[in-house]
Amino acid sequence: MPSHPLTGGCLCGAVRYEVAGPLGPAGYCHCTRCQRRTGTAASANARVEPGTFRLVSGEEHLRSWTPPDNGFVKVFCGTCGSALWSEAPDDPERRGIRLGTFDEDPGVRPAYRQFLASAAAWETVPEDGLEHFDGPRSSH
């Protein structure tokens, strides 16, 4: 079990955050948007329970992009470009943090893979025993 608060931030250190409680479900997103945002085949994320996230420093460095189809807002560091988290456009407390931004082991492991219908053709999706969803996990 990791100790709380969990801490994390961007590559350059300009943005720092804390998560006061355990993380919710974690998984890989294989959607085209995540592929383009990260330059990888999938993005590993964990949900954050409402009220447990706190931005410690770097608010002035935060930038965001809101997809035109009302998808989750993508938040990143404007200095180094690190993808940090996404949040629901109607409720910023509904947040998914990129697992690679935590300072230490966040204590969760991905349990599912979503948006496999748009998975990158150039990387085979592993048979790793995780739940598979062609679209979003939340609709299942």
List strands and helices in order, with pairings.
Blueprint: E1 6-9, E2 16-19, E3 23-29, H1 32-38, E4 43-48, E5 53-57, E6 62-65, E7 73-77, E8 83-88, E9 91-98, E10 112-114, E11 131-132
Parallel strand pairs: 3-10, 10-11
Antiparallel strand pairs: 1-2, 2-5, 3-4, 4-9, 6-7, 7-8, 8-9
List keywords for this structure.
140 residues, glutathione-dependent formaldehyde- activating enzyme (gfa), 1 helix, 5% helix
What proportion of the residues is helical, as a percent range? under 10%
Question: What is CATH's topology name?
Answer: glutathione-dependent formaldehyde- activating enzyme (gfa)
Report the average pLDDT across residues.
93
N-end to C-end Cα span: 29 Å
Number of individual domains: 1
Assess the beta-strand content as a share of residues: 35-45%
Largest sheet: number of strands, sense, barrel closure = 8 strands, mixed
CATH-defined architecture: Alpha-Beta Complex
Total helices: the number is 1
Radius of gyration from CA coordinates:
15 Å
For the biggest β-sheet, the strand order reads 6-7-8-9-4-3-10-11
The structural class is: mainly beta
H/E topology pattern: EEEHEEEEEEEE
Name of the top-level CATH class:
Alpha Beta
* Overall geometric form: globular
Unreliable residue runs: none
Query: For the record, what is the CATH homologous superfamily label?
Result: glutathione-dependent formaldehyde- activating enzyme (gfa)
Oligomer: single chain
The tally of beta strands, per DSSP, is 11
